[in-house]
Amino acid sequence: MMDSMSNQASPDLPAILFVWTDVDPEHEQDFNLWYDREHVQERVALPGFVSGVRYRCVQGPRRYLGLYRTRNLAAFRSAEYFQAFQHQTPWSVTNLQRMRNPMRRVCTISAEAGAGRGAWLAVLRLGAQASGDTGAVIGRLGPALLEMDGVIGSRLLTPDQALSTPLPMENPEGRLLDALFLVDASSQAAAQAAAEKAAQALGVAAAEISVLSLSWQLLEQDLPVAHGH
Q: What is the pLDDT, as a whole number, of residue 11?
């Protein structure tokens, strides 16, 4: 199990594209079909992308969360990513316009403990109150959470200002690019308990805890092999 924690900003750190959104109920079926049949595979196939994971929120401000892990931030600066981002498919353009209250962040994983993905995920936004000693707190918190039954791991996400450009329907006014703390767990109860402990340690109100269930995951190695390769 990987227990080491790192708070050093580095271009070599792994990264995550974090997209959290609601969608108009009348378009929800097509929105999910787009994500499940086109968008996730399209993104995971890009150079430097490792996985795409979808979650459905059971407690929190937005219904759907997509996490795309990459080897580092360079994946979001590649010509291939720029092409895909600037030239969305017609189906993508339609569904990006259907998003409501979306939140897009490109982040480094500046601290990580444990390994693997859980069936449940807790998300804490650290908000404007995050202090300079957050890294030290996370350094102690990550290993402590792993001692709790059902906790798989945790990650501290630090948004990159330049790369975290807003989605079409995202309000650019007053956007707070605050750090995010994620906890993976094997049960809803474990995710909730770990998030409550993290919230207390990080000075975040318990009411800010979001809990999400895993929908599905696509790994880079799951992609169909291109014909002739």
A: 67
Alpha-carbon distances, residue 151 vs 24, 95, 114 (angstroms): 33, 34, 9
- Tell me how far CA of residue 145 lies from CA of 29, 40, 62, 199, 214, in angstroms: 36, 30, 25, 12, 20
- Which residue type does 177 have? L
DSSP three-state, residue 201 = helix
The answer to whether the beta carbons of residues 22 and 56 sit under 8 Å apart is: no
Per-residue pLDDT, 214: 98
Residue 177 pLDDT exceeds 50:
yes
The verdict on pTM exceeding 0.90 is: yes
- Measured CA to CA, the distance from residue 76 to residue 178 in angstroms comes to 19
The identity of residue 93, as a single letter, is V
